[in-house]
Design brief:
single chain; alpha+beta; 5 helices; globular; two-stranded antiparallel sheet; binds zinc ion; about 20% strand
Amino acid sequence: MSTKSSIKEPDKDPEKPPEANVCAKPDCDKLANKVCTACNPPKTRYCSAKCQKDEFKYHKMSCVGSQKVNCFLIRAIAANGGKEDVDHIEQFYLRSYGDFYAQLEELQSRLGWRIIMEAGQFYAPDPKINHWHYMVFHPDEHDNQLVVNGIASRCLGRIIRGDVAIIRDATSDEVCCFPEEFSRRELLAAVEFYETHDANQTNRNRSGAAMADRMGYPSRFIDGVFVVQL
Ligand SMILES: [Zn+2]
Ligand SMILES: [Zn+2]
């Protein structure tokens, strides 16, 4: 595997096929032109989705995209100059996770934000997961000096400026059980979901479904419309 660490980062131009290399699956020597999108550069490469899937149980132990923490930052500008969503997402372990006001203080002091606000929430791609959501904290939203955060804007359905911090939070105070730590891979799946799903409509539907669940009413989506059966 050590010979693979010197391979070059794949070409960022989506029109051009990435450079060919050998598949990372040990018993496969086919040319690899697919990458693990959750990896830090140099990204691990595969010849096919099948090889990537077969190898995932081993790869996830070393892939930074699979490491779980309780908070991530989505940077308005990627630190490494990359253009993909993954290049904007950084691990950020929150010592005060779970204590709302302590979280605000910790984020504010460690990130050097003049003020901190709750920007909103977005849900996981799985339509059955409504009992928790991703909560977004951000610095002063009226500070026009800050660069627009494209990913956060997409997930919240409005313009968000500057870096943001993401944690998981229960949709209702009564909910206690959900995985508080999550991986960059999971967050990436969520932010990519909002490329094709309207954030405002999804948020309305999913918070409606969460409320219906709490009240014990069955609910479902019919042609994209959220329906509670009373
Ligand atoms: Zn990886
Ligand atoms: Zn292969």
